[in-house]
Amino acid sequence: MFTIALNFEDGVSRFIQCNENEKVLDAAYRQKINLPMDCSDGVCGTCKCRCERGEFDLGDEYLEEALSDQERDGGLVLTCQMVPSSDCTIAVPVTSSMCKTGVDTFRTDVIAVENLSPSTIELCLRLSDRQGLAFLSGQYVNIQLPGTEITRAYSFSSAPGADRLSFLIRNVPNGLMSSWLSKRARPGDALTLTGPQGSFYLRAVTRPVLMLAGGTGLAPFLSMLRTLARGELSFPVHLVWGVNRDSDRVKLEELASLAQQMPLFSYRICVADSASTERRTGYVTQHIDDGMLNDGDVDVYLCGPPPMVEAVMSYLQARALAPQNFYYEKFTPQAAGEAS
Predict the structure, then answer these.
(1) CA 55 to CA 76: how far, in whole Å?
(2) CB atoms within 10 A of CB 340
């Protein structure tokens, strides 16, 4: 049995189980997810999706009008013909609501809340009732503030399948969630999560990777790196992480440990404050080497506040360099009184 991640264009992800020799379309319908289809015989092409990760067999029982050789070589598949031979990730080009599905809700309990620095809170949770929460490294969930209808979106810093769920949360002055975590949260408190969601997640590593993080935008990269550490890297992975002050640097021992575990992984930290004791000061774009960009044959992942995301985009445009793939996610902290 294989796990198939279905990622819809509205950012919702659902995970289904596909039996050996079972077609993805049949497995989805069996689990009440109505993927697009018309003929189900490889004739119309209505069920065309993109497989972003995994091994599978399409056979030769479909028409070229439904899926051309060029489309197949580009990663497109017909889910009515696709028989997985491993776990797979599939991008579905319609919204989740069109497939009569949506996000899941999960009950969790607080294990610990730790102030890693004046700016960063680490929240650790465990699932209640032995539920399973599958997600892709880099994705996020919405966490509901207890006693309200307010939610906040946070990326996992834990890897899929870990014993506990963890998140790095920016400690926003007077922020609703920050205040609750800092002042009232206790082990055993219940929290409700909805998700997972997001198109910012780790794809198959088939070329060098450059990860660019700002502040607590480190969280999804920790999830990705923890996942990569379970296997063996075949291509270099570089992380450049920018923070405002020396006190914002967290998880330093873990980053060093990950670099030891993965010889092809390297990282550097830069601090915006010119008075920093860090060897590198300034902004992320000042510390990207040409080798990291590999003449454009690189997958770039970027997560940080909007000004940083825009600065990186301007940097790449100024260099007239287009990465092979460019995935990014902006986050905007919300303070007290702001809409959720």
Answers:
(1) 13
(2) 14
Q: How far apart are CA 202 and CA 278, in angstroms?
A: 29
**Which domains, and CATH codes, for the chain?**
2-99 (3.10.20.30), 104-197 (2.40.30.10), 209-330 (3.40.50.80)
Which residue is it, tokens 């919204």?
95
Q: What six digits make up the tokens of 48?
A: 């065309």
Which positions of the chain have pLDDT values less than 50? Answer: 335-340
d(CA 125, CA 138): 17
Residue 64's pLDDT is what?
Answer: 87
Alpha-carbon torsion angle 117, 120, 121, 124, nearest 10: -110
Calpha distance 231→38 (Å, rounded): 39
pLDDT score of 312? 93
DSSP 8-state secondary structure symbol assigned to residue 159: P
pLDDT of residue 139: 93
Please give the model's pTM, rounded to 2 decimal places: 0.85
Distance CA 135, CA 105 (A): 13
Q: Is the CA virtual torsion 275, 276, 280, 283 positive or negative?
A: negative
Strand extents, DSSP E, 19-78: 48-53, 56-57, 76-78
**What SS3 class is residue 188?**
coil
Q: What is the DSSP letter of 179?
A: H
Q: H helices of the chain, where?
A: 24-30, 69-73, 176-183, 218-228, 252-261, 290-293, 306-318
Q: What is the predicted pLDDT for the residue at 131? A: 64
Distances (CA, A) of 25 to 17, 21, 149, 273: 11, 12, 35, 53
CA 310/CA 94 separation, integer angstroms: 28
Work out the angle between the directed axes of helices 218-228 and 252-261 (0-180°, nearest 10): 30
- Phi, psi dihedrals of residue 256, rounded to the nearest 5°: -65, -40
pLDDT of residue 128: 81
Q: Are strands 104-117 and 56-57 parallel, antiparallel or unpaired?
A: unpaired
Distance CA 328, CA 301 (A): 6
Q: Provide the pLDDT for residue 340.
A: 27
